[in-house]
C-alpha cells in the first residue's frame, strides 16, 4: 500500500489522453506523487475499430482492453480507479461509489480533466463494461445485416468508415452516405477528400450526397430496420430502412460547468484552456484540460489528445520539481489520418515519407490489419487476456 503521505495527480477520463500521461509518467515518475486515473468504464475501448466491428463479427473481444497492467500492478506508481466522477472541487474529485483505498472522493494537487466527448452509436456506446460493449456492437451487426438500404448521416471519419465497411462486407446492399458539406474532412488536404470520394464511388459503389442535410426527427431515427422515407433540406427524398446518425459531438464538460462555468465556451460548451493547457480560470492554475473535451485548433484525434496530455503532465511535473512556470503546449500542427475503407482499402494523409502527402493505394490498404491496430492498445496498456480488468477494485 502506498504511504499516507503520497500525493495524487488525478486524471478524469481513462482514454487516449490518459494513456499518453500514464506512459510518460511510468517512464519518469516522481517519488512524491502517484497518477490516479478515474474512469467509469471497466475496459479501455478501442473505438478506432468500432465502425468495422459494428459491421463484421469476430474481433470484438480485442477492442476492450483491461486496465490492470497499465502501471504494472504498482499502486505507488499509479492506479486506474473505476468510478464516475460526480463533482470537481478545488482539490478533490467526488465519486459515485465507494472505492477501496479512497472512499467516495480522491484528493489531488493537480488535475487533468480529460472526459472527452459523447457521440452517437456506433462511434461510442453507453456501455460501461466489456460485455455490454460487445452486445452493442453485435446489435449493430444485426441491424446492418438485416437492412437492405442503410443511410449513413454525416461524412466525418466515422460516417465514411461505416459506409465503406458496410458496402465492402455487403456489396449487394444499397448504401447511401449523406454529408452536409461539399467535401469531406476539411482539416486535411483537399486531396484526401477527393481520394475518399473516388474510392467510395468507384471501388465501393457507395451512393454519396454532399452539400445537403437530412431532417432528423425529434428524438432521432429509430434503432430498428423498417422502411422510412427521409427528406433533405434541398428537397430530396431518400428511401431507407435504417438511418444511422454519425453527427453531433457533445463535450463531457458538465462537471466543469458546475465547478468553473467561465471555463466553458459559451456556445460550444467545450472547455477553454490557456496556451499552457491550464483551464481558463485564474483561481485554479493547478487544473488542466486536454483532449477532445477542449476548445482547440488541434484536430480531435487520439494522437493530439495524447500529446496534449503529455504536455500538461510535463508542466505539472516541472512545477512540482522546480516551481517552473508552465510552458505553452506546442502543437505539432500536422493532422495525420488513416481512414480504413473496408478490407485492404484505405486512404491516408501521412508524413512518414517526408513531405505531407495523401495516399490511397493498394499498398496503404494492405498494410492495415483486420483489427485496425487494436494490438497497439494492448501494448500501451501492457495487457494480456489474463490481466485483471477494472470491474472490482
Ligand atoms: C469511431 C471512432 C474512430 C476514431 N478513429 C481514430 C483514429 O483512427 N485515429 C485517431 O487519432 N483518432 C481517432 N478517433 C478520435 C479519438 O478516438 C478521440 O480523439 C480520442 O478518443 C479522444 O480521447 P480523449 O481521451 O480526449 O477522450 P475520450 O476518448 O472521449 O475519452 C474520455 C473518457 O472519459 C471517461 N469519462 C467521461 N466522463 C467521466 C466521468 N465523469 N467519470 C469518469 N470517467 C469519465 C469516458 O468513459 C471516456 O473513457 C476516432 C473516434 C471514433 C469515435
From TrEMBL:
Residues 8-308 form the FAD/NAD(P)-binding domain. Pfam families: Pyr_redox_2 (PF07992). GO terms for cellular component: cytoplasm. InterPro entries: FAD/NAD-bd_sf (IPR036188), FAD/NAD-binding_dom (IPR023753). One of its GO terms (molecular function) is electron-transferring-flavoprotein dehydrogenase activity. This is FAD/NAD(P)-binding domain-containing protein. The lineage of its organism: Eukaryota, Fungi, Fungi incertae sedis, Mucoromycota, Mucoromycotina.
Amino acid at each position: 500500500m502506498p504511504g499516507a503521505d503520497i500525493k495524487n495527480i488525478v486524471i478524469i477520463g481513462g482514454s487516449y489522453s490518459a494513456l499518453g500521461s500514464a506512459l510518460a509518467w511510468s517512464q519518469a515518475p516522481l517519488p512524491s506523487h502517484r497518477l490516479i486515473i478515474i474512469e467509469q468504464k471497466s475496459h479501455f475501448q478501442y473505438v478506432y475499430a468500432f465502425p468495422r466491428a459494428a459491421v463484421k463479427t469476430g474481433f470484438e473481444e480485442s477492442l476492450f482492453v483491461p486496465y490492470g497492467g497499465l502501471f504494472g500492478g504498482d499502486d505507488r506508481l499509479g492506479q486506474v480507479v473505476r468510478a464516475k466522477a460526480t463533482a470537481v472541487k478545488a482539490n478533490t474529485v467526488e465519486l459515485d461509489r465507494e472505492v477501496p483505498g479512497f472512499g467516495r472522493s480522491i484528493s489531488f494537487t493537480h488535475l487533468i480533466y480529460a472526459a472527452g466527448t459523447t457521440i452517437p452509436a456506433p462511434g461510442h456506446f453507453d456501455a460501461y463494461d466489456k460485455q455490454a460493449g460487445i452486445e452493442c456492437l453485435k446489435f449493430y451487426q444485426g441491424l446492418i445485416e438485416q437492412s437492405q438500404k442503410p443511410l449513413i448521416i454525416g461524412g466525418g471519419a466515422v460516417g465514411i468508415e461505416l459506409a465503406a465497411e458496410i458496402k465492402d462486407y455487403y456489396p449487394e446492399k444499397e448504401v447511401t452516405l449523406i454529408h452536409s458539406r461539399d467535401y469531406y474532412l476539411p482539416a486535411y488536404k483537399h486531396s484526401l477528400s477527393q481520394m475518399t470520394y473516388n474510392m467510395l464511388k468507384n471501388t465501393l459503389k457507395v451512393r454519396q450526397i454532399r452539400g445537403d442535410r437530412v431532417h432528423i426527427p425529434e428524438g432521432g431515427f429509430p434503432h430498428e430496420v423498417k422502411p422510412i422515407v427521409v427528406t433533405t433540406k434541398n428537397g430530396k427524398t431518400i428511401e431507407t430502412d435504417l438511418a444511422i446518425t454519425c453527427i453531433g459531438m457533445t463535450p463531457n464538460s458538465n462537471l466543469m460547468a458546475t465547478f468553473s462555468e467561465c471555463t466553458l465556451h459559451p456556445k460550444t460548451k467545450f472547455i477553454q484552456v490557456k496556451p499552457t493547457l491550464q483551464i481558463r480560470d485564474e483561481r485554479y492554475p493547478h487544473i488542466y484540460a486536454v483532449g477532445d473535451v477542449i476548445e482547440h485548433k488541434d484536430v480531435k484525434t487520439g494522437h493530439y489528445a495524447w500529446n496534449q496530455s503529455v504536455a500538461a503532465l510535463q508542466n505539472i511535473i516541472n512545477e512540482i520539481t522546480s516551481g517552473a512556470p508552465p510552458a505553452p503546449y506546442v502543437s505539432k500542427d500536422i493532422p495525420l489520418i488513416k481512414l480504413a475503407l473496408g478490407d485492404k482499402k484505405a486512404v491516408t494523409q501521412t508524413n512518414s515519407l517526408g513531405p505531407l502527402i495523401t495516399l490511397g493505394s493498394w499498398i496503404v490498404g494492405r498494410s492495415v490489419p483486420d483489427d485496425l491496430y487494436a494490438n497497439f492498445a494492448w501494448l500501451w496498456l501492457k495487457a494480456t487476456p489474463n490481466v485483471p480488468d477494472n470491474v472490482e477494485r
